[in-house]
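Check my protein:
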Amino acid sequence: MASALMDFYDIDMNKHSIFLSTRGCQVFSYSLHLGSATSSPSFFFYANRFLVQKLSSFTSSGPRPFPDYSPQKPSIKDSELVHHISTTLKQRRSEHLHRTMKPFESKFRPDHLIWVLMNIKNDYRLVLDFFDWSCLRRDPSLEVRCIVIQIAIAAKDSAMAYRLIHDYWTKPNLDVNLSFSYFLEKLIYTYKDWGSSPDVFDIFFRVLVEVGILENARKFFDKMLNYGLVLSVDSCNFYLSRLSNSTHGIQKVLRTYDELSQVGVCWNTASYNTMIHCLCQINKVKEAHNLLLKMEFRGCAPDVISYSTVIDGYSKAGELKFVLKIIEAMQVKGLKPNAFTFNSIILILCKAGKVLDAEKILREMIHQGVDPDNVVYTTLIDGFCKTGNISAAYRLFDEMQNQKVFPDYVVYTSLIYGLCRTGKVVEADKLFQEMLRRGLEVDEVTYTTLIDGYCKAGEIQFAFSLHNQMVRRGLTPNVVTYSALADGLCKQGELDAANELLHEMREKGLELNIFTYNSLINGFCKAGNILQAVNLMQDLEVAGIRPDTYTYTTLMDAYCKSGELIRAHELLREMLNKGLQPTVVTFNVLMNGFCMSGMLEDGEKLLQWMLEKGVMPNVATYNSLMKQYSIRKNMRAATQIYRIMCGQGVLPDGNTYNILIRGHCKARNMKEAWFLHREMVEKGFSLAVDTYLALIKCFIKKKKYFEARELFEEMRREGLHGDQELYGIFLDILYKEGDMNSTLELCDESIENCLVNKISGGIT
C-alpha cells in the first residue's frame, strides 16, 4: 500500500509545488475519493497518515501562514491624487503614458506608486506600462518590484517575472547576503495579497540557482518549508544539476537528494537520471543500476536516458555482460537506443577488442536512422588501428568524410598511430603533412606518436628532426617523447647517446619515471645488452622506483629469445614474490620462448594453464603456437589451435591469416589456403609479401598460372616485390607468350628490386 501511495503521490503532484496545509490535505483526500472505485479503505488510511506525517515534519503547530500586506495608509489628500491618477490611467486610450502622467509628475512620490498599483492591478498591460514609466523617473523600490513580479505571475507571464527577478540579481556590486534577506522578506510580504501563486517562489529559486547563489538557494528552499511549501520537482532537478558542477558537487547532490526526499519532494524520471549520472561519475555503477531498477516501483518509468547512462557507466568500467543485459531490458521496454547509447556500446566493444562487432552496431545505428558523429567514427577508427586493421580504419575514415563528418586531430593521430604500429611510417608522415595542410591542431601527442614510429622503424634522424620541428612550434617534448627517442637510440646500438639523453632529461627538470626506464631497458634488451638492462633495473630500484610487470616481461622476453628459459622462469618467480601480477603479454613472452625452443608441448600446457586460471589469452598467444605448428607443416594441430581460439571468442588478426595461409601452402593444402585468403580480404586484412609468394608459388606448382598471375599483379599493385625465383618464373612465362614489352618491363623491375637493392644493401 505504501508503494501504491508513493506512485499516486509522484504521478499527481510531481509537476507542481506542493502545499502541506490543511487545505492541501482536504484536496488530496478529495482526489483519493475520486479514485475510490479502485482504492481500498486501507489505501485511504495510509494516504491520510502519510499527509499527517508530512505536515507534522515541519512544525508541531503546522505551517506558518503568509503575512497580510499592510502598507502605509494614504492621507486624504494622497487618496484623492491616487484616485485621480488611477481614473486617468484607466480612461487613457491611445495617448502615450508619459503625456497622460505629465500633469501629475510634480506631485508624484514613490509612495503613490504602490497605491496606484492597488487600483490598476487587474489591468496587467497598464501595470507594466505604469511600472516602465516609473522606472524612467527613478529606480523602483524592492517592494514595488516584488509587487509587479507577483502581478506578472498572477497574469501567467512567467517570462516577465523571471526577467524582473534576474535583472535584480545580476546587478553589479550586489551584496548577496544582505540583498537575499531583504528580497525574500519583500517577496513573502507581497505574496498573499498580490499574487498567491507558488510559481513566484519557483522562479526566484531558479534564478538563485542560475546565477550560482546555491547556498542561499538552499536556505530559501528550507524557508519555504516553514510556510508549508515544497518547491516543484523541476526546480529541484535544476538545483541538483547545478550542484553537481560545484566543488565536491556529486557528494553534495547525493546528500541533498536524500534530504529533499524526506521533506516531500516527489522525484521524477529526470531526477533519477541526474542521480544515476552522479553515481556513474563516481564509479558507483552498480548503485546506479539498482536505482534504475527501483524507479518503476517509485512511480517513474525509466527512459532511454536512464538506460543509456547506466550503459555508459558499465562501458567505461569494461563490464560488457552488464551492458548487454541492460540493452536487452531496453528492448523489452520498447525503448530505442539513441546516439549516446550506441556510442557507449561501440566504445566498450572496441575496448574489448571486438571491433568488427562494434562496426555491426554502427551499421544498426545507421539503419535505425541515428546519424553517427565524430566520436563514433573516432572510436571505431582507433579500435581498428589498435588491432592492426589499417585498411578497415581507412575505409571508415573515407566513409565519415563522405557523410560530411569531418575528422579532427584525434582521428588523424589514431591513424598515424596505427600506421606507425604496422611499420608504415612513410604513410603516417603523409597523413601528418595532410593534417598540417588542413590547419588541424598538431599537439605533443601527435608529434610523439610519429617520433616513436620513426624510432621503431630505425629512422632516428627523422625522429630527431621531428623533435626539433616540435620545439620550433612552441611545443614541449615530454617524458614520453624522450623515452621514444632513447628507445630508438638503443635499437640503433647508440647506448651512449641514449644515456646522454637521460642526463638531458634530468637537466630539463623532467622527472624520470618507470616508463622512461622501461623504454631504456627495452632498448638495451633489443640491442642484445641484457647485462646493461639488468644494471639499469637495479639503478631504477635505487632511485626508489619499483620495477613493474612490463620491466620483468621485457627482461623475460630477452632471456627467452637468447634461449635462457631457466633465467626467464626465475624472473617470473621473483615477479610473483613481489606481488606483481603477470599479464597476457608476460605469458605470451613465455609462450614464444617455448615455441622458439621447439617446446610445443610445454606451450600447449601453458595455454591450458592460462585458461584454467582465467587469464584470457589474446590472438598473439595463439599465433605463436600456430606459427610453430605451421613451420612443422602440422596443419591439423595448427587448425585445432585456431578453432580453440575462435571458441574462446578471440578474433583472428592479419598475422593469424598470414601464418595459416603460408602453413597450408607449405602443406600443399591449396583449397584451405585460398578459403582463408578470401576470408582475410573480406575482413579487411592485407597479405604479407611472404604470404603472396607462398600462394603464388603454390598455384604455379598446381599449374594454375592464371590465378598465380592475377595474384602476382595484385602484389605489384600493393607495392610489394617478389623474390628472384618468382621474377624468373614470370619472365619465362611472358617471354614464351611473346609479350616482349611486358617481359622487358618486368626484367627492369627484377633488376631494380633483386640485384640493385641486394648490392646497395651489401655496400651499406
